[in-house]
Design brief:
The chain has 7 helices and 2 strands. It is mainly alpha-helical. A two-stranded antiparallel sheet has the order 1-2. It is extended, with a radius of gyration of 22 Å.
Length: 194
């Protein structure tokens, strides 16, 4: 990787840290805290949240008919997501130790905290949990696939890859045969028993 790309990646990392700091500042403005590892709001904020909650009966009564009709199709997607979750977890558990690939922590991707929001009714909380699970599984599976690709084929594509995983920018340039052979030798040496 050339120095310009390395410099840009470092600057991107610095911007990500700056973004995290700004998001933390905004988080603090909302007066959200942690007490014994649990989300906690100030009592006044919690009271205002409860006031903005839409009752479940009102929420259902206001739902458009097509939303109600298509809801079972959305919820049926839980089946393939559970299967993906199961299969990538088993794949990682068996294969990553063999190739000495660092395992992905599932709990870093499956985050369920929206049920603490008092302004959501029961169905909204359920929907948030559903979306959290599905998007978490996608992120988890993507990271496992990204680490697999980094191990087996760390070569960029000839065309720009839209939405590439975080490892992709550090891959070898398309067509750089010497760099690829050197990287394969490094990976083999790293994953061989000592």
């Amino acid at each position: 990787m050339n120095s310009i790309v390395s410099d840009l990646l470092e600057r991107m990392k610095a911007l990500e840290l700056q973004l995290e700091a700004e998001l933390a500042r905004q988080h603090a403005q909302l007066k959200i805290g942690l007490e014994n590892g649990r989300i906690a709001f100030e009592e006044e904020i919690l009271r205002r949240h409860r006031e903005t909650k839409t009752r479940l009966t009102t929420y259902l009564r206001q739902a458009r008919p097509m939303v109600v009709i298509t809801a079972p199709l959305i919820y049926a997607m839980i089946i393939p997501f559970v299967l993906v979750d199961l299969f990538v977890s088993v794949y990682q558990a068996i294969c990553f130790p063999v190739y000495k690939i660092e395992k992905v922590r599932r709990r870093n991707y499956l985050i369920f905290d929206r049920h603490h929001l008092a302004y959501l009714n029961a169905l909204e909380k359920f929907n948030c949990a559903f979306c959290s699970y599905c998007n978490g599984v996608i992120g988890y599976a993507r990271e496992i696939a990204g680490r697999t690709e980094r191990h087996w084929c760390p070569i960029k594509h000839a065309r720009r890859a839209t939405g590439a995983h975080e490892h992709y920018n550090r891959f070898l340039e398309y067509g750089d045969a010497e760099a690829y052979r050197a990287e394969v030798a490094r990976i083999v040496a790293q994953s061989s028993p000592k």
